[in-house]
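Intended use. Records like the one below are meant for learning the mapping from a protein sequence to its folded structure. Do not use them to infer anything beyond what is encoded.
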Amino acid sequence: MARNEALRRELITRAAHPAAPGNADRLWSILDDYEAWPGFRLVDLDGEHAAWLIAQLGDPDLQRRCLEHLEVAVDNGDAPPGHYACLLDRVRMAEGRPQLYGSQWVVNEHGDLTPWPIENPAGVDDRRERVGLQPLAVQRALMQSEYAEHGAPEWPVTSPPPRG
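Structure written out for the chain above:
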């Protein structure tokens, strides 16, 4: 797939406000047009990251569709495994199921930030390591710091910025 610089710039611009009206619809149309995840080969690291931010805040149907394409992209080295892990957790959370990687956080009844329930919590750090995510304790410290400083995050902060 040839690089599309215009699409890369568009996604980066849209990701500045990932939940903005029209972003989810545009990601749907990109998936329709390319029949693939907008990965590294098409939109470079920062464009892929931008698409992932938009997907994280899309509706559950868009998230499930993105998840299918993202899995293939990860298998082909065209997207980071951590992006797949975070989106999978988000989809499972929307379905009311426990997450696998501990990437999704909620405010509990006491006003504390806590991870959404995790399936087999004893193995979560091993799963996180396999997809390039930091240990849950590090994630907890980052999330608590973000929450203390800004309140609930406006968009996912579970993935560091892409490395070039």
